[in-house]
């Protein structure tokens, strides 16, 4: 038997209906922030992802040689593709250019709950402005999106990578050591190995210092001022001090991040709790461009899991009407009713298996229809329909036109 590949999922009707709801909500919020939807190819030249993505992504890349001998990769993320697209076809557009995307991404990882080989990213890019207010807009959109979805139990961590960078530069730590260090911040032993005992003690206490006291460690305090401006602007979006923490340990998996960065965790998710990552990055130079870009990617599947966990996703709408024609003579009339309901955009279905009334009703019940509509000789003759509410079993006969205008009112 052939089964689905490891790390992939089949999504059934209930799940798809819930995902579509979340997806539409996210689109609505992004549009309300002035962003426009775009799409890039599912696969790209592998090289696009190798240059600046950092070691973790490179290991996880799903790549292959195509029939023409090209090195091709399924996209592991959208940021590099969007910047490629920008450089190929969107450069001339007025700035700021605000775009969002929603689609599947692929990573060869060890699958577990919340971690798949095929998963969905909903993300945004804000191209052009390099100001604290642009960083705030970026962070605010991510937080507003989760708030709009009704997610409650999440936390936001914000940093400015420049703060770490200046600290290390001022202590003349060479660039390659900085790279190593950024992947070892959670492990004090590794930090000690990389920096030596003196600098590492100072570095570790620096990492644990609150924003208000960080200035003591730096000569050039401009990145701290910059971050403070971002945070002040967040107030305008109803994002207050208690809504986030400052965490210098954020480094982001992708090596092209350079300025203000942030991560969001949803706590109901257990180990795979990060639902969003983003910030300011430099990919322009990959294409010989000098352009600022800020964005984020929401792990759509984890967001859905977190919402389910908090009971925020209603079970999908039941099917509305199931029409059961009784006898050949009532088919024409039944199809008229079916047509009128569908025309109104109401979900309506008709018995296709020529089952008797009892079996058709039992199907309507099991398939979770709200109402069955019985149409026999009498209904056709009198211009009526007999409606049975499936849950209560209540049944009434209405003039067809009255029934249809009632449907209209309840929509
Ligand atoms: P993680 O640390 O969980 O591997 P990441 O830093 O690799 O995350 P990003 O590249 O920032 O993730 O992607 C943005 C978001 O996409 C993550 O916050 C996460 O919610 C989601 N995500 C990343 N990898 C997967 C995956 N394999 N399956 C499902 N969601 C994922
Ligand atoms: Mg990862």
Walkthrough of the structure:
The chain is elongated, with a radius of gyration of 28 Å. The protein starts with 12 loop residues before the first helix and ends with a helix. The chain has helices at residues 13-32, 47-50, 55-60, 79-90, 132-149, 161-170, 175-182, 188-195, 197-207, 222-236, 300-309, 331-343, 357-366, 377-382, 400-410; strands at 36-37, 43-45, 62-65, 71-74, 97-106, 118-128, 154-160, 244-246, 257-266, 274-281, 292-299, 321-325, 348-350, 371-375, 384-389, 395-399. Helix 1 packs antiparallel against helix 5, helix 5 crosses helix 10 and helix 8 (188-195) packs across helix 9. By secondary structure, it is an alpha+beta fold. It has an 8-stranded mixed β-sheet with strand order 1-5-6-11-10-9-7-8. It folds into 2 domains: 13-309, BirA Bifunctional Protein, domain 2 (2-Layer Sandwich), CATH 3.30.930; 319-405, Rossmann fold, CATH 3.40.50. Helix 12 (331-343) links the parallel strand 12 (321-325) and strand 13. The structure holds adenosine-5'-triphosphate and magnesium ion. The site of adenosine-5'-triphosphate has 18 residues, from strand 6, strand 10, strand 11 and helix 11.
List keywords for this structure.
39% helix, Rossmann fold, eight-stranded mixed β-sheet, binds magnesium ion, BirA Bifunctional Protein, domain 2, 411 residues, 15 helices, five-stranded mixed β-sheet, alpha+beta, binds adenosine-5'-triphosphate, single chain
